[in-house]
Design a protein that fits this description.
255 residues, alpha+beta, Immunoglobulin-like, Alpha-Beta Plaits, three-stranded antiparallel sheet, 33% helix, elongated
Length: 255
């Protein structure tokens, strides 16, 4: 809007209460996903821009958002020592600086801080900007190449960002563990451990049952051997350890 003052100040909003899945920065118009992770589909959002003049003028347009459930391994996280609300207000300038210094097309995947509550958005002094870089042929560039160039251009990037934020800016690259466990992987591991424990318990129970059954059979045989009718010479007897031993034949003398 080329107007000045309130007539040139635009506020953006989503129409039809679509904030359960998306949100929009009312000052910049940047759209954020809220709860569409893992859903591969296209969403049609109706966005309104309104100036703040006495007689408010509005305009609406439809924005089609294509959500890809796949994730890229080439995302690079750039950490700025600025509050998240300041970074969001200047996100287009941040993008421009990165593109100028890297000489690549930069796509900003997300902007976030460690603060989980929205009311604390301005309390953190570190903001993370997730980016993807593409070459002139629109091919996604490897993360290591992007990191290497970011380190090489670090001083120039910080100099240009200082002009944007009107304060010294430091730029760092956040190293993310390459093989961080996903919830699905954690669930699989837990289920595998439980299954293994169950199988071990079943095996122990079977072995215990077999051993007990064998012991009962031995005791039964010993009992049968000990109980011999009277008047019959017992040629064999059982010692205290349960083993058979020869006995001397008893002499019976009838006087």
């Amino acid at each position: 809007d080329p107007d000045s003052g309130d007539n040139g100040r635009l506020l953006y909003s989503l129409v039809n209460a679509q904030t359960n899945e998306f949100d929009i920065d009312e000052n910049t118009g940047q759209i954020f996903t809220v709860s569409v992770a893992g859903r591969a589909e296209t969403f049609s959002l109706e966005v309104q821009a309104a100036d703040q003049g006495t007689r408010k003028l509005t305009a609406r347009t439809t924005v089609n958002v294509i959500v890809d459930s796949s994730s890229s391994n080439n995302i690079v996280v750039v950490v700025l020592n600025q509050k998240i609300n300041a970074v969001e207000r200047n996100i287009l300038e941040v993008k421009r600086v990165l593109e100028d210094q890297l000489a690549w097309n930069v796509y900003i995947v997300g902007v976030y801080s460690n603060e989980s509550e929205r009311k604390a958005r301005s309390s953190s002094d570190a903001t993370r900007v997730k980016i993807l870089a593409f070459d002139e042929a629109n091919q996604e560039l490897p993360a290591e190449d992007v990191k290497r160039k970011l380190r090489a251009q670090k001083t120039h990037i910080e100099t240009e960002l200082k002009k944007v934020f009107s304060t010294p800016v430091t730029v760092a690259i956040e190293e993310v563990p390459p093989d961080s466990a996903t919830p699905e992987l954690i669930a699989t591991i837990v289920l595998s451990v439980l299954l293994a424990c169950t199988l071990i318990a079943i095996l122990v129970y079977v072995l215990y049952t077999m051993k007990k059954k064998r012991k009962d059979e031995q005791q039964y045989l010993i009992k049968e051997q000990v109980e011999i009718p009277e008047g019959i010479d017992n040629l064999y007897a059982v010692d205290k350890n349960g083993s058979l031993k020869n006995l001397e034949k008893l002499e019976h003398t009838n006087n």
